[in-house]
């Protein structure tokens, strides 16, 4: 074996509510900002999550796939629009029932539930009031987290407050790529802060309702930038430390204020907020796909403050082409980047970590074999996962406490702005028939899990 993993290391796969559930108008669910975004022409081909993988109805089939795969844990997300569909109203029992069935169904199959509370599907009624630009959103989302934790309690192994707040702030309010697509550049810093505040309030609400049993975490897509030291440092402040430092150290770096002077006054940070944000968590979730190459451009730093940007405060940084090979997303393949990121993050923050997402979009083709069975031969994905697992193992050998690894994703699904054009699953989805076909990577991963190693 080139890498072996301890018995308590969690092998799993991950999904998210809006990407797989469908049933957009059922059992009282209200629209989310992603329903609005996808229905107003912001996704490739006009794709929406209305049906997606129909997992809302086919959840048992999906749990059986997980059991067949032999995973230790399954990371999925709860949709606030199902649980709190009415502004100011009571929780929706049908929404809670659905997630309770999933949790109990997982436990019955010997699989640990890892629950993400916010994976981007904010109710539209909160979006209408400014979404994450509005401080009140943090309080509403924390209340919802408490409602879910009250119902699911300590049956959940790990509660994750937020998935990738970088995306739900910079990509959504700074740029235009994700819902609501505001394109307000530095306005995104208010969303950053309100997401941080939500994280802190959510952890407290969850602890209060579910007790000390479940682990608490947050999942960040930390950037691994390579190149010019000044450019790397700038982006580290804006993209990484803007979340890590308040959550894990209780402050924003002074340098972050310095590099955003003139475009943001940070007046939305109120007295006491940092104490609320800085709550103990047990494990840090890391989503990792690729790396960037960056350089200082020589341009002035702040041309116009209102320009759409996913990196406000870094208008003088250039993104350079990365070395191939690239995935079907155009992302480079750099397993060393994962190793380096884990080592660096542990060095700085000393928390155990889980790779909560890692995987590859491929141009998968469904083939019918001579014996009539359907198959997808995704050798590239197997190689991608194998090399990244090796990188995790290397970090562990060097003393980094890694608790698990989750392949994104169990199923091909609604890949946000790219709709159904990008396939990340280890199970192939036929979007016409909703038939699920395990790919070669599924069988290979099953072997890795069974052998607890490569
Ligand atoms: C991450 C998201 C996840 C999925 C993958 C490919 O940014 O958390 O929902 O879309 O990328």
Structure report:
By secondary structure, the chain is of the alpha/beta class. α7 runs parallel beside α9 and α8 runs antiparallel to α9. The protein has 15 helices and 15 strands. The mean pLDDT is 97. The strands form 4 sheets. An 8-stranded parallel beta barrel has the order 1-2-3-4-5-7-10-13, surrounded by 5 helices. The longest helix has 23 residues. Helices cover 39% and strands 15% of the residues. It binds beta-D-fucopyranose. The site of beta-D-fucopyranose (FCB) has 12 residues, from loops. Beta-D-fucopyranose binds next to loops.
Gist of the model:
By secondary structure, the chain is α/β, with parallel strands linked by helices. It has helices at residues 17-20, 33-39, 55-69, 80-83, 93-108, 124-127, 136-152, 165-174, 188-210, 229-249, 254-259, 273-277, 335-349, 379-397, 440-451, and strands at 10-14, 73-77, 112-118, 158-163, 215-220, 225-227, 283-287, 292-296, 317-320, 353-358, 367-368, 374-375, 402-408, 427-429, 436-438.
């Amino acid at each position: 074996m080139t890498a072996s993993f301890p018995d308590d290391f969690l092998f799993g796969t991950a999904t998210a509510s809006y990407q797989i559930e469908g049933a957009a108008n059922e059992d009282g669910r209200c629209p989310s900002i992603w329903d609005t975004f996808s229905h107003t022409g912001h996704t490739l081909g006009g794709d929406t999550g209305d049906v997606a993988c129909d997992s809302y109805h086919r959840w048992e089939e999906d749990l059986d796939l997980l059991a067949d795969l032999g995973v230790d844990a399954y990371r999925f997300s709860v949709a606030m629009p199902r649980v709190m569909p009415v502004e100011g109203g009571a929780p929706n029992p049908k929404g809670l029932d659905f997630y309770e069935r999933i949790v109990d169904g997982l436990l019955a199959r010997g699989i640990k539930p890892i629950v993400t509370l916010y994976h981007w599907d904010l109710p539209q009624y909160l979006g209408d009031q400014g979404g994450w630009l509005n401080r009140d959103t943090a309080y509403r989302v924390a209340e919802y987290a408490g409602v879910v934790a009250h119902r699911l309690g300590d049956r959940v192994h790990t509660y994750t407050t937020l998935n990738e707040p970088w995306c739900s702030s910079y990509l959504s309010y700074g740029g235009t790529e994700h819902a609501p697509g505001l394109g307000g550049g530095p306005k995104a810093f208010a969303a950053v802060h309100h997401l941080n505040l939500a994280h802190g309030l959510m952890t407290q609400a969850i602890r209060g309702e579910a007790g000390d049993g479940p682990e608490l975490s947050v999942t960040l897509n930390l950037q691994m930038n390579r190149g010019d030291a000044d450019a790397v440092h700038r982006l580290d402040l804006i993209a990484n430390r803007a979340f890590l430092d308040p959550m894990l150290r209780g402050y924003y770096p002074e340098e972050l204020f310095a590099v955003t002077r003139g475009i943001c006054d940070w007046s939305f940070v109120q007295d006491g907020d940092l104490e609320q944000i800085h709550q103990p968590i047990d494990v840090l979730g890391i989503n990792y796909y690729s790396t960037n190459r960056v350089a200082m451009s020589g341009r002035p730093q702040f041309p116009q403050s209102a320009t759409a940007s996913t990196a406000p405060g870094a208008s003088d940084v250039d993104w350079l082409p990365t070395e191939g090979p690239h995935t079907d997303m155009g992302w480079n393949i750099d397993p060393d980047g994962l190793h380096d990121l884990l080592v660096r993050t542990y060095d700085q923050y000393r928390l155990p970590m889980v790779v909560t997402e890692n995987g590859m979009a491929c141009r998968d083709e469904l083939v019918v074999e001579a014996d009539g069975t359907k198959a997808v031969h995704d050798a590239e994905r197997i190689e991608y996962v194998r090399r990244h697992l090796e990188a995790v193992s290397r970090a562990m050998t060097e003393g980094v406490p890694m608790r698990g690894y989750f392949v994104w994703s169990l199923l091909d699904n609604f890949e946000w702005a790219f709709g159904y054009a990008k396939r990340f699953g280890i199970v192939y989805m036929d979007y016409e028939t909703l038939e699920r076909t395990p790919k070669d990577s599924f069988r290979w991963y099953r072997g890795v899990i069974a052998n607890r190693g490569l």
